[in-house]
Amino acid sequence: MSRTSIELTTVAQPRAVAKSSIRRTSTPVNASIISLVEQDALSTPSLEPTIAITSKSRTAVIIASVTLITAISTLLNGLTTVALPTIAAELDIPDSLLLWPSSIQALTSGCTLLLSGSIADALGARFMYLTGCVLQAGFILGCGLARTTMQMILFRGLSGVALSLCLPSAVSIITSTFVGQRRDMAFASMGGGQPIGFSIGLALGGVLTDTIGWRWGFYLAALLDAVVFAIALWGLPRSIDDRIGVEGAASHSWSQKLERLRTEIDWVGATIASSSLAMLSYAFAAITGSTADIGRPSTIALLAVAIALIPIFIWWVGRQEKLGKPAIIPNSLWRNKIFTTICVAVFLTWGSFNALETILTFYFQKVQELSAIQTSIRFLPSPVSGAAFNVAMGLLVHRVSANYLVLGGCVLSVAAPLAMAFATPHSNYWESGFLGNVFNPTGADSLFTISNLLITSVFPAKTQALAGGVFNTISQIGKSVGLALVAVIASSVTASSRYADKTSPEALMQGCTATF
């Protein structure tokens, strides 16, 4: 087999023609040129309308906006993970719905990302991002005010829909405003916000749960979301939402945007894909909550229908391509080996990363029987490692072959489950849990910057938000599959253990060891 090498080379930024901190210019489709040795290059459009940001202060504002909105969502995931036993006791959540407050957000977000990305490309990434910020702040506040199980699950689900408006739009904002190394650092910062947010949420959830109450975590997150909205409203250039037409003029009227909404979105394809993803995510979430649900008729029916929709989707987008009409994810993209490989890598890496993080929480709380605060403290190395690795990716992505960066990150991440594979209920933290937390984020963080650069380079300039939706959808599916898989493995191994008490630390440890 021929060897394929991928190198990301920085494109020099265009010279400024004025002293303004914002300028519109035409640059190559991505800040990176993807050189493929012994393989065909990516088929991409030649020009991308870009608002080149040169001001350091404006750069900081934009990067802070897109980073914080992702950090807030993962912060709440971490907070919910630690505080879930207390939330369940206070809201009287039945066992059949116990995991829904923590899993429903990923479900609703994952099945609406593609559609949200398409709409953002039509109406404007800035508009959709600001809309998502406002809605998310309101729904997060609703979670803090919830007094019943259904209210909590409803608001967590709606916050996932609001998040789906922000994530693809954030990717489009980055590709529209930055070139070269600033784009790399923006993606790296956005990726770093996820592990940092989750770990801060774990720590904050443990402290608040044992002191003033878990509700304050949602109140503080809603307040922070409102602050992000204010920063974005002031700092994001309005020209982000302008589309450069064939004659070089920017189109920004609502009549033009609504026309694009009607004619440039593959509504049928988006509906088929979203429906399939919704049913798959629901089935995986149900299995994660109770492995006994895998044999229920409703779960089997959902999985069967979801899988049956996949060939229908493939046929539909193939038909759209042949007719020259919009296709949400053209079949021709999957013939690109680089695109397909990076999507598979994201799916597997995010599944492993999230599964191990969840099992580590279970290990600390259920096996070692630690308190929420003690568990939170043990996760502190994770955000430090994640942030450091993302910064390193942003700095190295144009100096070192992407092959080596991805390979190195993934090899390091393998050390995390290996360090935990020999753990016992009484293992020393520094010999197992510490190493697991340090190395777990490396694979996901090495892929985040590179995969976003590659995936956005494959899609045309006018569908960059959809490109962001594709990346986030794949990572969400990987997360759902990973969590469901480890739940089934841990449950079955624990049930077949030789210990009579299946809830004892020793019995639970066998299930954890199998997942590691």
Structure, described:
- The chain crosses the membrane at residues 60-85, 97-115, 127-147, 153-174, 186-204, 216-236, 267-287, 299-317, 338-364, 376-397, 404-423, 443-461.
- Residues 59-516 form the Major facilitator superfamily (MFS) profile domain.
- One of its GO terms (molecular function) is transmembrane transporter activity.
- It is a multi-pass membrane protein.
- The structure is a single chain.
- With 516 residues, this protein is mainly alpha-helical.
- The chain has one domain (49-245, 252-515): MFS general substrate transporter like domains (Growth Hormone, Chain: A, Up-down Bundle), CATH 1.20.1250.20.
- The protein is built from 17 helices and six strands.
- The chain has helices at 56-91, 100-110, 113-123, 125-145, 149-177, 180-209, 215-235, 254-263, 267-289, 297-322, 337-367, 372-378, 381-396, 402-421, 433-458, 464-495, 505-515, and strands at residues 6-10, 22-27, 32-36, 48-53, 243-244, 250-251.
- The strands form three sheets. Strands 1-3 form a two-stranded antiparallel sheet.
- The radius of gyration is 23 Å and the shape is globular.
- Mean pLDDT is 77; it is low at 1-49 and 244-250.
Task: Please give a handful of descriptors for the protein shown.
two-stranded antiparallel ribbon, MFS, transmembrane helix, disordered N terminus, two-stranded antiparallel sheet, mainly alpha, Growth Hormone, Chain: A, 17 helices, Major facilitator superfamily (MFS) profile domain-containing protein, membrane, 516 residues
CATH H-level superfamily title = MFS general substrate transporter like domains
| Poorly predicted runs | 1-49, 244-250
Question: Roughly what percent helix?
Answer: 55-70%
CATH architecture: Up-down Bundle
Q: How are helices and strands ordered from N to C?
A: EEEEHHHHHHHEEHHHHHHHHHH
